[in-house]
Request: fold
Amino acid sequence: MLSASVRAFCIVFSVGFLLAASPADSSAADRKSSLPQPDETVDYKTTPQGKLQLHIFKPKTESSSPRPAIVFFFGGGWVSGSPSQFYPHCRHLADRGMVAIAAEYRIKNKHETTPFECVEDGNSAIRWVRQHAADYQIDPKRVAAGGGSAGGHVAASTATLQGFDAASDNKNISSQPDALVLFNPVVDTTAKGWAAGARKLGDRAEDLSPLQHIREDTPAAIIFHGTGDTTVPFENVERFCEAMKKAGHRCELYGYADRPHGFFNYGRSKEDYQDTVEKMDDFLVSLGWLRKP
Reply:
């Protein structure tokens, strides 16, 4: 049974983070039906609440060498949301030569779970991709994690947090990604980043907080965030990037003036979507994962 503190945690976050799951207007359903569709959907994990799937987008061109891959985690406050949020990003990157994946993970509305299970599922997804790298011509040393809002937290957590592993996972396979692509992510769940963090999570607030667990091997990151975000204040990612750089890691932060939470989503603003995607491309090119267009 979920504790009262964890139930409250999920409820408080759900209101704001639902904005990140999909653009907010009456044509959302029509837009979803017009989104690019995955080339394959596979089960990657069986949980007490049911099976979880990866929605895989494959490059159309042949390659003589293993390809980089990225796994995206959707937003929605750890409460709701859909992998389809990142279908446009996946199709774009697949067309650029990457294997791009939109991952399901357990959420409160569907599975009655907490953010801790979300992070566990994120680790399981990264491990599955590496375990099956040969099946999809993926380079296991070039697997990125990406995501928006709560999904950005899941991605950042796979790169920083330890101890959130499913009993069924093969822990000999690393769950840490080799790069991070984050869109208005939650990176600090303590009282300093979220006023109610310590009160709602108690002793576990810091356990769930990527900023406090930056490691020597934390990978390079790029972050897109609106300076007008009132759900996840911009200063949270500023502190995260400062801590990353202090630890000797690369962290590129792009602030978008006065933009609200979820500004980057496909269908919100064509200009903002295209700009963030172009900068994401440039970041991956700089890593040597993609060629210049």
